[in-house]
Every structure is written in structure tokens, then in C-alpha cells.
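Risk register update: the risk that structure generation would not scale has been downgraded. Supporting records follow, first protein first.
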Amino acid sequence: MTTRFTVPPATRVLYLFLLMLAGLFVAGLFLPLLLHLFGLESGGRGAVYLGVVLQSLLAFMLPAYLTVRWSGHSLTKYLKLRGDARLRRYITFGLLAFLLSYALVSFLNRWNQGIVLPESLSSVEEWMRTLEDAAMKTTMLLLSGQGVGYLLLNLFIVAGLAALSEELFFRGALQQFLQEKIPNGHASVWITAFIFSLVHFQFYGFFPRLVLGALLGYLFLYTRNLWVPIVVHFINNATVVVLHFFWGESEWMEALEEAEVTPAFAVLALGSLLLTLFLFMHYRKRHVEEVRR
């Protein structure tokens, strides 16, 4: 039997972020050493892959594991990582939610990228654009690899490892800690989604990532199984990887990435939002009826 310590939720949140900062520090400390050990060029594709792996393991996965263990909880039980007879249905629900919300997220992505700050904040906008360009350059460096080997590597690291580590940290640990402190599922979902988007330090992708984080949070809140947001997060990342690998230089892909924010696009996004809300309401109603039986 696991001994449970009385560690307050707020203290666990503090531990979680302190460990995340420590993980980032250790990753930055060991990265040059590992680059030298493996003979990789700093700033090259191999160095970026190694950096993503270190960050995923040390800044997200390990802090979630240690904080839950120090709290005295069973890891798989608390993080909701156990199997479930209804898991297939949960994942189907999650994939439907992802598909229905795709137009909304795409619209927010295009709208967010077009935001222009007032002239008085031009220096702030320049700083944010610099961060955005650097992040995009890194992403495109990974996605530009040719050959099936790079496709599989991106699916494993960029899509899989990132999805697993971030869901363990944000939905598995942080969202549950917050819900213990603030007994309101909606508040815990949106606070976690806000932090999830904020820590990526990409202002021009903040709002679509906020909505994606909320979607993942509600999937976890309603299914109580972390594998659901992990799979949906993986599918989201894998979609980007696959599209860029097979159609990255195609005309329709360029048109999709440069789509204008038009009234028709806004109406499509609104329809996407309403359909997604309807799906969640239908799922919740059905779940409540099953519990009452």
C-alpha cells in the first residue's frame, strides 16, 4: 500500500514548476556535453532532436513523475494511465472532438498570426516576432528532413514523445493539482490551458494553442483517462508532421497556411465551435445516464 503524504495542492504546483526549471537548467547544462560526445553540430538537426528529447524527459516527464510520487500517490492510478474497457470509445470521442474543432483552431491560428500591436508596443511586437521566427525556423528544420527515417523520427520525437511528456505534466499533474485546490473542473481546465500555451513562448500561436489545451483538458476531465488527451495530442502533432512530409511544398498546402481571415472562414469556425460543444454536451448527457443505470 502506498503511503500518502499531506502535501497541499499549491505546494505540489510549486514543486512541479521548480522541477521544470531545474530540468531546463540541467538539459541546457548537459546538451553541449552530449553534442560533443555524439559528434553533433550545435544548431544542426541532430542537436535540435537531442534538445527536444532532453526537454521532454527532464522538464516535463520527470517533474510530473517526481511530484506525484512525493505526494504519496500511486503513479498510474493518480495520472489515470491504467487501461479501461471503455478506452476505445473514449479515444473515438477524442478524435471526433479533434476533427470537429480543427476549423476553429485553424481560424484562430490565422487570426492570431495577423495580430498587430499598437505603435507604442512596437518593441514588444518585434521581440515576440523574433521568438516566433526562431521557433518556426527550428520547427521547419525538423520537418524538412527527407526520407522515411526522418518521418519516423519526427513521429516518435516531435509527435509522440512531446505529446506524452506534456500531457503527463499539464493534464496528468498540473490540472489535477489545480482541481484539488480549486474544486471547479472548468477553472482547472482553462488555467492549465493558459499555462500550457504560455510556456511555449509563441505569442502568435497563443490562442489556437490555448483552445487546443482546453480541448485536451476537457477530454481528460470527462473521460478521466490520460491516454485520451495523449492520443489526441499525438494525432495533432502527427498531422503536422505528415502533411509537411508529403505535401509541404504543394500549392494547396501553401494556400492552407496562408488562408485569409474572411467572414466565410469565421462562419466555418463558429460552426466548428458549436459542433464541438454539442459533442461534449451529448457525451456528458450520455455518461450521466449510464451512471444512473
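Supporting record for the second protein:
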Amino acid sequence: MNIYTVPSGAMRANCYLVTQDGKNAVLIDCGGEEPLAVAREKGLRVRTVLLTHGHFDHIGGCAALQEAGAEIGCLREEEKLLFSSANLGGMAGAPVPPFTVGFTFRDGEKLSLYGLEFTVIATPGHTPGGACFDCGDALFTGDTLFLESVGRTDFPGGSMQQLIASCKKLFALEGERTVYPGHDETTTLSHERACNPWVR
């Protein structure tokens, strides 16, 4: 499995191109159009976009990816937020170009995509329908879990109580993972279990 980190959009949110066969890719989040250019440079076709949540800095490039042929999916509880003021695009002066959700998924569902298997983990708190994706030794956490930090909960639908419970749910996963967050640098699950000051 190869993972390419692509900072995207005005907020430079981390988006991740994930490929097993070197031809087809899954994109985790899509803050801007940058992943398209990187995928073409690496000879990849983005077939599917999986969204960790619906804030503008993680979905701003979805229209462009959809136009290029990608199907977009999110946790079913998050779908309404994508197309409401709660996506924060209007507040930030960065309205989200319209796109459609091709499929939704639920907590615990396994998604088999081009030789990759992602397990969906519902992680409400940053948003009501936030999700993380567990794939091999990689854990894509969006804005739920960061290096020694957690996501904000002061936006519409946020809940610190839910977010901490979601992080503890991630900590309960067996074994080690490299954590690929929606912003800033990677970390590991073992480091966060031991050092994250927000989750005790």
C-alpha cells in the first residue's frame, strides 16, 4: 500500500491518495483540486473519495474530482451537513462547489476498494457524522485525532464529550497504527494513547 499526502485547498488540509495496485486510488478527503494533479503525475486514477467529515476545507475539491469520474461517499449521518451552512464554507468565504454523494456507509462497514479494505469507524464529536478509516496499519482520522491534540468542538454540531469518546474508541483498536490526520503531521496510535493530553 502506498499513501501520498497532498495538502489541499485554502486551509492546506491533508488529503491522502491511497493505492494498492499503482493504478487505482482512493482519496481520503478532498479539500481542493490538488489531488487530481498529483494523481495524474503518479499515473493514478482516483476512483473513490471517502470523506471523514463535511467541513469546507475537506470537501472543497469534490466537484472537480466527481467531474473527473470519482464517486464520493460519506457517513450517512454527515450527508446533510455537507450541503448546509454547517460546512462553514460561507463563514470562511470559501463556498463549496456543488457535488453529489454517490454512496453512504455506516459504522463498522467494510469497504473493499481496488485491493484495499477500509473499515469505517464512526467518530462523532468534531461533527455529528465524522468518520475515520482503518486500513491495514494506517488510520485516517480527519479532524478527530491529531498529534497530541483533538479536533475542535465549537462548531455547529460539535461535542467534546462525543469527541473524547470517539478518540477512546480509536485507542481501543488492537495493535499499532500510523495516524494520518486531517491537518499537521502524522503520529502513531501508541504515542497518542500514551501522550495525548486531551484523552485520559
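The chain has one domain: 2-195. On this basis the risk owner (M.S.) recommends closing the item.
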